[in-house]
Design brief:
Elements: H1 2-28, H2 34-53, H3 55-83, E1 115-118, E2 125-130, E3 133-139, E4 149-156, E5 159-162
Helix pairs in contact: 1-2, 1-3, 2-3
Length: about 160
């Protein structure tokens, strides 16, 4: 019987170490929580094994496991504060957006009648270059292939209509 308790204690120790390693892997690597859940299950197995062998040592093991979990959570919290991970939202863009390559300056009547070159195939919209500047343009007729010369016939909102 004592041999059983000796091997149970060794199994508890191994399960405890595996649980800590799995939780650390979960903290360091991005994932879906599989290793974290497995680590918690290892901790639960340690508690159950200790409860089966000796109820007084089970309370000590539960305390140690809870202490380890609390220390790991505090470490994650401090690490997150240093990196700002807790305050980042995947919905809110924090970085500066680069300016678009298409110029919106000087649109209007001054562009009507000017000619330019198609930079991206107009299907029916794309980019054209007029007087060295890039503009968003569209065609009301057919597709216009890249490299073709076009003439501005109208300006509607933020886009230029070309033929």
């Amino acid at each position: 019987m004592e041999a059983l308790f000796g091997t149970m204690w060794l199994a508890c120790l191994i399960c405890f170490i595996i649980g800590i390693v799995l939780l650390l892997i979960e903290l360091c690597l991005p994932g879906f929580g599989v290793s974290g859940c497995t680590g918690i299950l290892c901790f639960a197995a340690v508690i159950v094994m200790q409860a089966l062998t000796n109820s007084s040592s089970a309370a000590i093991v539960v305390s140690v496991v809870m202490g380890v979990i609390i220390v790991l959570l505090v470490a994650v919290f401090i690490h997150s504060l240093n990196k700002g991970l807790l305050f980042r939202s995947p919905i809110v863009l924090k970085e500066e957006i680069q300016t678009a390559a298409v110029s919106n300056e000087e649109k209007g009547e001054s562009l009507i009648g000017k000619t330019g070159v198609v930079l991206t195939t107009l299907r029916p919209a794309g980019t054209v270059q007029i007087d060295g500047k890039r503009y968003y343009a569209k065609t009301e007729a057919s597709f216009i292939e890249k490299g073709q010369n076009v003439t501005v016939v109208a300006v509607k909102g933020l886009s230029i209509v070309v033929e």
